[in-house]
Amino acid sequence: MHHALAAMPRAGLLIGSDCAVLTPELIRHCHSALVEAEAKAVCLPAEDGGYALIGVNRSEASLFSGIDWGTERVMAQTHHRIEALGWRLACPATVWDVDRPEDVIRLTHHWA
């Protein structure tokens, strides 16, 4: 994730492929938080403790190292890293993603 963001020439967003509720409007809002607001980072926390989107103005490797990936602590740990860097974080919404069988059922109802 660090390398992908570091390769971007400007503020960039990484989007999870398992979040069906991301809309173009929400993605635009997240991007605006980076380029038009004072935020240095933007996240869309997921209900399960992770996140479905992260964006930064410039990437720092420390933001992604030592995170307990795949656990309910991911967003909290990432938030602590952002605070340690002295960055302002924007979190425009909380979303849900598809990780478990019950999430597939929720997705089916969402698309119905």
Salient structural properties:
alpha+beta, 15% strand, 4-stranded mixed β-sheet, 4 helices, 4 strands, 112 residues, Spore Coat Polysaccharide Biosynthesis Protein SpsA, Chain A
First-last Cα distance: 33 Å
Helix tally? 4
Q: Tell me the series of helices and strands, N- to C-terminal.
A: HEHEEHEH
Number of domains: 1
Q: What is the number of E strands?
A: 4
Low-confidence stretches: none
Largest sheet: 4 strands, mixed
- The level of helicity is 25-40%
Strand order of the largest sheet: 1-3-2-4
What would the principal axes of the Cα set say about the shape? globular
Can you tell me the CATH topology? Spore Coat Polysaccharide Biosynthesis Protein SpsA, Chain A
CATH superfamily: Spore Coat Polysaccharide Biosynthesis Protein SpsA, Chain A
Strand content: 15-25%
CATH architecture: Alpha-Beta Complex
Question: What oligomeric state do these chains adopt?
Answer: single chain
C-alpha Rg (nearest Å): 14 Å
User: Could you tell me the mean pLDDT?
Assistant: 90
Based on secondary structure, the structural category is alpha+beta
Please write the CATH class name: Alpha Beta
Summarize the structure.
The protein has 112 residues and is an alpha+beta fold.
List the helices and strands and how they pair.
Layout: H1 2-6, E1 12-15, H2 24-35, E2 41-45, E3 51-56, H3 74-84, E4 89-90, H4 101-111
Parallel strand pairs: 2-4
Antiparallel strand pairs: 1-3, 2-3
